[in-house]
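#struct-help
A.M.: can someone run this one for me? Single chain, 121 residues.
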Amino acid sequence: MRKVLVMFLIVAISGISAFAQQNQEERRQRMEQMNERIATDLKLDDKQKAEFKKVNEKYLKKMTDEMQNMQDMDREERRAKMQAMNDERNADMKKIMTDEQFKQYQEALQAQRRNFGGGRN
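D.P.: on it. Structure tokens below:
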């Protein structure tokens, strides 16, 4: 009985781990597709596309790393931290886009927040 329980736990843990990795990969793929669509909609040139991708990857990593640190924060602290990182990312994006592109980018982000229920400003 004990062996069966141990085997069940091993299988369950490995299944959860595989699911988490698959889920993370799916999120990354969706983000890449969304970024490609936004880059196309904004008519970014090749140099801008490369910078756009670099900025998004930088902040994805930063946000992923910070999520570990934010576990102990209350909701408002987490929200403020995420907002600060979003503001930093937007400042970097503004450097690589024209004023019109950045305006369209902001509008696309707002629409995305509304679609996914995140726009509570």
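A.M.: thanks! The two ends are 54 Å apart (CA to CA).
D.P.: also worth noting: The CA atoms of residues 66 and 81 lie 9 Å apart.
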